[in-house]
Amino acid sequence: MSLNSCIQCGTCIASCPSGRITALNTRRIIAEFISSGKKVEERDEIWFCVTCYACQERCPRGIEITDTLIEARRTLVRNKGLPGRLGYAFTFLMNHAALVPAREEHVELRRKLGLPIYHAQFDEKAKEEVRRIVEKHAGSVVR
Fold first, then answer.
1. How many Å apart are CA 25 and CA 15, to the nearest integer?
2. DSSP secondary-structure letter at 12?
3. How many CB atoms are located within 10 Å of the residue 35 CB?
4. 137 Cβ partners below 8 Å, 6+ apart?
5. How far apart, in whole angstroms, are the C-alpha atoms of residue 130 and residue 58?
6. Residues contacting residue 43 through CB under 8 Å, at least 6 positions apart
7. Which value, to the nearest 10 degrees, does the dihedral of the CA atoms of residues 56, 142, 84, 102 take?
8. Rounded to whole angstroms, how far apart are CA atoms 11 and 13?
9. pLDDT band at residue 123 using 50, 70 and 90 as cut-offs
10. Closest to 142 in 3D by CA, of 61, 100, 86, 99
11. In terms of DSSP H, where are the helices of the chain?
12. Other C-beta atoms within 10 Å of 138: how many?
C-alpha cells in the first residue's frame, strides 16, 4: 500500500520505540508527503528509525512504513553518501576497527599485567575482519 492511503490514525508513531525518544515521527512524515509531496528522503529524522517494524506490523492500512524509510535511506546514500557523523563513524570504524579508540596506555597496562588484549583495534586479525565487513557493506558510500 502506498503512503497516500494513510488515514493518520497515529498507530505508527504510538508503536515506535525510537519516536518516544528522538525526532522521528512517522505520522508527520507521511502527512507532509500526502499534503505537500515532501519526499521521505528529505527528512533527516529517518536515520532515527531502528527498523523494528512495529509501525509497519501494526498499520491498519498495511502501509510499508519501515520499508519506505529504508528505501529513502538507500536513495540518500546513493545520491549524497552517508550523512556527516554517520559517514565519519563508518570511516573511523573501517580504519580503526572500533568506534571509540582504546588508549594506548591502557593497552600497555593490560600487557604488563598479563591481561588479554580484547579490543579489536589491537588484534590485527579482528581489525582486518571489521575492515572487510565495513568495506563490503558500506565501503562504496564511506568517503
1. 11
2. H
3. 8
4. none
5. 36
6. 29, 72
7. 100
8. 6
9. low
10. 86
11. 11-15, 26-36, 54-58, 65-80, 84-96, 104-112, 124-138
12. 19
